[in-house]
Task: structure prediction
Amino acid sequence: VNAQKKLQVVMPAVILIIFLILYLTYRDIGDTLMMFLAVPGAVAGGALFQYFLPKFFGLDIGQNFSVAVWVGYIACFGLATETGIVMLVYLRESIDRRGGIEKITSEKEIYDAVMEGAVQRLRPKLLTEGTTVLALIPMLWAHGVGAEFMSPMALPILGGVLVADEVIDLLIPVLFYWDRCRRLKKRQAAASLQPVTGGGA
Result:
């Protein structure tokens, strides 16, 4: 009970710290919010796996919110955010290779950059997700010393990583495209309002 009371303070603190670190790293509130979408995806995935997986596979673990499960959620927040960062890094680098948003002149260029960055991210995504899943699955059927802690902790991590990764793959490129198109239109509108200076009489 004492540990759970402390975790009720630690969990919001962890989420706040993740947000602050992302913002201080990228200095961009829009990109920070996009990367932060991984956290609610991780919560949804962890809750789904925590509820359904023990029923489907006859596992007697993880359906109650023990301290181990809380720790699993904290771990999956970090892992999910990490995959979101990888996606944003590839998307931003793809824009930067074209000279940045200041040099891009059309939404088609942004679309091509987003597609290029998202596809390049596929290999590291599969490697990261695959190694995590392969490492966690044996924990679900573990026995012996420490199994009563590791098995419940693995459920939210496994579900959180898998579901958050799909949220990242499907939503972040779309949101990134919309955001960069908005910035492009804002820049073009500001340029059109600039006074035109004529030559001498």
The first helix runs from residue 2 to 26. Helices lie at 2-26, 29-36, 38-57, 67-96, 107-120, 122-140, 147-192. The radius of gyration is 22 Å. The CA atoms of residues 18 and 78 lie 8 Å apart.
